[in-house]
Amino acid sequence: MYVDKNRFKLSWERKIALNVMIAILHVLSGKIGLLLSTHNSEISSLWPPSGLALAAVLTFGTYQVLPGLLTGILITSFQNFSAPITVIGVSASCLSETLIATLLLHSIGKGKFRFKDPKDIFQFICIAVFLAPFVSSTMSTTFMFMGGVFGTKQVPFMWFNLFVGNSLGILIFTPFLLTFVTRRERKTNYLEALILYVSLGFICYWAFEGQETKRFLVVPLACWAALRFGFRGVGLTTITMGFMVVWRSTHWVTTPDAPGIDLFWIQCLTFGTAIGGYFMATVVEAQEMAQEKELEYFISLEHKKVAEEALAILDQAIQKSPIGFALIDKQYRYIRVNAAFAQINGQPADWHLGRTLREMIPYISDVVEVMVNRVFETGQSLMNIPYQGNGNNTGKNLSGLVSYYPVKHPITEEIFGVAISYQDLTEHHRTQDLLKENEARLAFAQEAGRIGAFEWDMTTNKILWTSELECIYGLNSGEFGGTFESWMERIHAEDVQNFHENIVRVLIGESELNLQFRIVTKLHDVRWLLARGRMMRDSQGRGVKFIGINIDITDQKMTEQKLRVTEANLLHALSVRDEFMAIASHELKTPLTSLKLQIELYQRGVLKGDLSIYSPEKINLLLQRNSRQIDRLTRLVDDMLDISRIRTGKLTLKKEDCDLSEMLKDILNRTKEQFRVSGSGEPIVENVSEARGEWDPLRIDQVLTNIITNAIRYGQGKPITIKVKNYEESVRISVKDQGLGIAKSDQEKIFQRYERGLIAREVSGLGLGLFICQQIVEAHGGSIWVESEVNQGATFFVDLPRVCHSTIFMPYLQHDLIPSEN
């Protein structure tokens, strides 16, 4: 802990408020201190203003609090003394005490006063507790004597009382107040603190009446405070002790013949307790800080290891990157080069390291050095600068983009290098050239097809169309009006403005005509056209004739649209395939989990030496359960194979007459261990003797198992209630937990694929279970829903009609997950 005199920089409004507050606190604390006076009402055995003043100056700086401090000292002195010389002298002595202590403490600490080891406590005691009060009490005693406050015989005693009162005030209050702005945070056990200070109050009241040996009972409490609560605990302990014992000693004197002697020993005990407590707190906190630094060191080592691993991964990625990368230092030397960059320069990567730009690329080093210097000077990146030229020692004509980035030190922020990246676009540009050539060939081919030409005479403002162009617009030969207005009448309403703007730009010479637009024929057919044209100008640059062509590209546009639809369908089919595989995996997991649980139970019995597990009944029961689970797995695999073969996506339910009550008992028997492990205990089951219906037992078992295991997972170990009710046409089962609950806004979303409630996202899972359950229930003609409030648990309901007329399994999946060949 240290106090920096420059720590607080306050605005003038806050300075005023601070000085007013300090003046008020100084006056109030002075009145409290005078309540502890003994032989003279102007001299206190414990003077809190001394500690308050020193803490304020150490915290905020002398100049920021001097007005408030001086005001408080003068007001306190005027209230206690009548002689002007005494008021001025005592005020000067109080102020000098604070300034001497502050100056010497800051001189030793070079502007920062520290409480980090016992040496600092010793310096504080010598300077602030003894030296400064010695000077102050000497000055105060002199001016009080000169003002007639006491006589010659009382001078030694009064000087000693002043010295001890000021010393105690500084020793008790200054470190305690400084902890609120400088100490690191400690975890406080408030119950322990309450016990400590109640005990301290009782002992101070009881022990300081009678035998002097009882008074030393406060020492263990001070040690307790130092060890458990640090500086703040010691400060509060000594403040409590100081006020109570001094007050009790000055108002209920235990040594009537020599009250001053009794008070002297009490003050010495308070001195010793405070000094010892602060020394002990310093040692404890120094040990804690050392442990924290050691922990930080090990954490930093771990972070360094992680950073090195990340750097290695990054370096590997850079080395394998197709984009060239190099790092240049301030001497233009290569310090890092990847394989792509080395290939561009025609030399191995290791050959670059330590060599300069002029050695490796002399033909363009001047240009590159200029760019590197600019990055070093400005700290700004230079992005995507085109480059075209020959590669060094390769003979290839290169074309690409070069970028320059500043590389800064992570701590100092100093630029120590420039990263150069080169993206080779040679092949890209070649491809573009080929595309342009193909476009030219395509244009020529289109000109041999449905192409119409026009000619606009700017001198007569007449437009001539070829018969082919009139045919494209759906007009008979010679039917075109020959004006720009007649042309605009055939343009699609949504393209009129764009068409007009492009024509204007051609007429004023900003560009040539190259525009795609729509027209509407006489038969109200919409067709797409490509218009190209240019302005012919005379020797003075004036437009005289505008010529061009229109190409019917309707078929091309329709083909593009079909391609976009086909691409979207393909992407959707891929997404559907992935979702289907995820759902299939989720379905397979349920029987596998049950099989694994049975095996683990028997393994546990074997390890415990329980021979009863080998009884014929239990072996038969195990075989029966495993057989059922294997049957379920076989059924699921068969179903997935059927789904992949059936183009329509339909799959019939394997319905049979079954009893939901027996099915529930079987599920609860399988999940008994899960209930036990979760801590929820056995579920509360309100079952019926029989709940029969025509259902697919495997699928209904899957639904009930899912919602019951969800209740176990999210029920937070609280009891789970399961109810089965018979209705005339249906059976309803409900599963209620007392766990996290589901927000209203999420109660519909959880039945969608990959969706769960926000609270449930803390638990792992694919979010497919309830989606599959909903498909199964709806395929049986039933319904599933949830009723819940956040932190109030959730209740899932499943309604199943006794007779299922549907044979379609999962109507959502058949259209979305299995794409048709058509």
Oligomer, anyone? single chain
Q: Unreliable stretches, pLDDT < 50, 5 or more residues?
A: 1-6, 252-261, 758-766, 810-822
Briefly note the structural class of the backbone. alpha+beta
Number of helices: 24
Rg estimate, integer Å: 46 Å
Residue share in β-strands: 15-25%
The chain-level mean pLDDT equals 77
Helix content: 55-70%
Would you report the number of β strands? 19
Principal-axes shape call: extended
Instruction: For the record, give the distance between the C-alpha atoms at the N and C termini, rounded to a whole number.
Output: 78 Å
Main beta-sheet annotation: 5 strands, antiparallel
Strand order of the largest sheet: 4-3-7-6-5
Supply the key terms.
five-stranded antiparallel β-sheet, 822 residues, 15% strand, disordered C terminus, disordered N terminus
